[in-house]
Amino acid sequence: MVSPGKLTALTALADGSAPEYEPTIDPDTGAVSYPEVARQLHDEDPTAFEALESLARRDILGKTFEEKVYVCPGCGAEGMQYTSACPGCGSAYTIETELFEHLECGHIAPRTEFEASSDGLVCPGCEATLDESDENLERGMRHVCQDCDSYFEQPEHGLRCRECTDIYVPSEGKERVLCRYDLTESGKRWVETQLAARESMVEMLTERGFEASANTTVQGESGTEHPVHVYAEDELLDSRIVVAVHERPDREDAAELRDVAADLDARPVMITTLGSVATGVASLAERDDLRILSAGTDGSLERDYEVTDDPRTTQSLVQRIASAVKQP
Predict the structure, then answer these.
(1) Residue 162 belongs to what H/E stretch?
(2) How far apart are CA 18 and CA 34, in angstroms?
(3) Per-position DSSP letters for 114-135, written without gaps between them
(4) Is the dihedral of CA 311, 312, 315, 316 positive or negative?
(5) Residues 281-310, mean pLDDT to the nearest whole number
(6) How far lies 262's CA from each of 198, 266, 268, in Å?
(7) Max alpha carbon distance in the chain (Å)?
(8) How sure is the predictor about 209, in pLDDT bands with cuts at 50, 70 and 90?
(9) Domains of the chain, CATH where assigned
(10) 259: Cβ–Cβ under 8 A, 6 or more apart, which residues?
């Protein structure tokens, strides 16, 4: 099922109020988010990234590469930062430094430790006086660890977690590719079909004297807030109806709608926009007085629907729309 929150996020893409969804990376923490999507989702929904990925896998959304970040293998924080580290102790506190080596005594130290005198430089190892052009004085740039005092030509590459501060070799960081998401052409028609079914249900219930609304949240007798596709009530007759719109509902979807309806003291109605449900859904509906309707692509509602042993073997609505678009 596409939850009310997900459908709201898709509707924003369909009507152009949000041309696409782009990732935002916090410059301080490295945390990745899709704030525009997150604002539309409810507590019951997955994260914005998970929601977008699930819709992309169904070809409702298309995605374009935007950025790559690394997730800490230790604490799971996002946005690890590249750093260099000492190959000896692993400290990131390394500084590229000019070193002098006195070849006669073998002492190596930063240039600043070779004290300057009126006669030249003084080796801190043997206290010999040297000239900077002395052939026994060799110089070069090396990285010096400020924690263990070791020096090396090149530090090791590393990824530092901004949260736990641990450093890992790049191969240990978990790559996460971030993308921009927008509606595919068939995805846009899919959204239109879901919305049409929802609006048709609102119109039908309104004509029958109910006060009906789409994409709303209703508090149940348990105190739980339930986001629903359609909710309608007739105060005079003390009657309520809650509606869920699905492409191909499974038994778990039907059981969830039944439980929500029980908490709202409402009659459950399920709409399938694919026109079919699994055998388990049909049997649960018959047992628990759950009404099933099928919706056409224009939003028209019918009582007839197909019962299949495995609805996953049939084409999805997006696939059917895509096939229709490709036909000459």
Answers:
(1) none
(2) 12
(3) SEEETTEEE-TTT--EE-TT-T
(4) positive
(5) 89
(6) 21, 6, 8
(7) 107
(8) very high
(9) 4-9+19-78+174-183 (no CATH), 82-160 (no CATH), 186-326 (3.40.1350.10)
(10) none
Q: What is the mean pLDDT of residues 237-250?
A: 92
φ, ψ of residue 321 to 5 degrees: the values are -65, -45
- Report pLDDT digits (tens) over 8-62: 999 999 999 999 999 988 777 777 889 999 999 998 899 999 999 999 999 999 9
What does the alpha-carbon distance between residue 201 and residue 164 come to, in Å, rounded to a whole number?
Answer: 51
CA 50 to chain centre: 4
Could you tell me the CA-to-CA distances from 149 to 127, 138, 153, 217, 322 in Å, in that order?
21, 19, 13, 62, 64
Contact 308/251 with Cβ under 8 angstroms? no
Are 312 and 280 within 8 A, CB to CB? Answer: no
The per-residue pLDDT of the chain, averaged, comes to: 87
- In this predicted structure, which of 80-94, 223-237, 259-273 has the lowest mean pLDDT? 80-94
